[in-house]
Write a structure and sequence with these properties.
Keywords: Coiled coil, Cytoplasm, DNA-binding. By secondary structure, this protein is of the alpha+beta class. 51% of the residues lie in helices and 16% in strands. It has helices spanning 12-39, 76-106; strands spanning 41-46, 51-56, 61-66.
């Protein structure tokens, strides 16, 4: 008696070739999306808009804008905290956007080494 596998299970070389083609297409789509994300710019603010940060998808700081009223020589620590908060928020935004876009490509498949 021959054992029969359910449809989609096994299938021999043709099924393996289809899986390989699908994985290659996914890899190409991911590379394309990564390149698109790296070209994007992300703006975030802190302190009610007193500090504005623009960061690229490569997590490179492109621009830092400070409102004049946030610059207080007596309270440099507050300004430092606001800058750190704005930069960290920008990094989180880049990472969250990248992860969401890659998940659209991979579905719920966890790809090692990605984000």
């Amino acid at each position: 008696m021959k054992a029969r596998l359910p449809q989609g299970m096994g299938g021999g070389p043709q099924n393996m070739n289809a899986m390989i083609r699908q994985a290659q297409k996914m890899q190409e789509d991911m590379k394309k999306k990564q390149a698109e994300l790296e070209e994007m710019e992300f703006k975030t603010t802190a302190g009610g808009g007193m500090v504005e940060v623009t960061m690229t998808g490569k997590k490179e700081l492109r621009e830092l804008v400070l409102k004049p009223e946030v610059v207080d020589p007596e309270d440099i620590e507050m300004l430092q905290d606001l800058i750190v908060a704005a930069v960290n928020e920008a990094i989180r935004t880049v990472e969250d956007t990248s992860a969401a876009e890659m998940e659209k490509i991979t579905g719920s498949l966890q790809v090692p080494g990605m984000f």
